[in-house]
Predict the structure.
Amino acid sequence: MIYDKLKNIEIYKGLYTNLDTAISYLASHDLTALPAGRTEVDGDQVYINVMEASAAPASERGFEIHKKYMDIQIDLTGTEIIETGDSLSMKVSEYNEETDFGKAECPTLASCTMGPGNFIICMASEPHKPGIAASEDLFLKKCVVKVHI
């Protein structure tokens, strides 16, 4: 997991080719101008999903994992908390190969308060629990950059 300010994202170049592509795009585009839905950056290698959601208490959220993609999550409007979990003690209860989405149970290792200007990179197979309410305002508009590994 990497958690930082969006203005610092370019210092993470060099870790992985597709991640470099995503970082270059994020550093050079106005994310608030992206339409809802999928925006392709490099086909299925790097793409962005822009969505609206409602945050909820942590007890109503679950850990998720992806095996083929890492996520870069960025709040455009609103603030959520994203927890990351212990992958060594993780128990995957469901995983769909086609959608690259799985549910997992594990202890929480870190809790990151998001909001505009921050980002988190959750590596493939790293459990993460997005959409946790950080305040009484539950509305979120966010983008999730999917980076194929």
Summary: The chain has a mean pLDDT of 97. The CA atoms of residues 18 and 99 lie 19 Å apart. The chain has one helix and twelve strands.
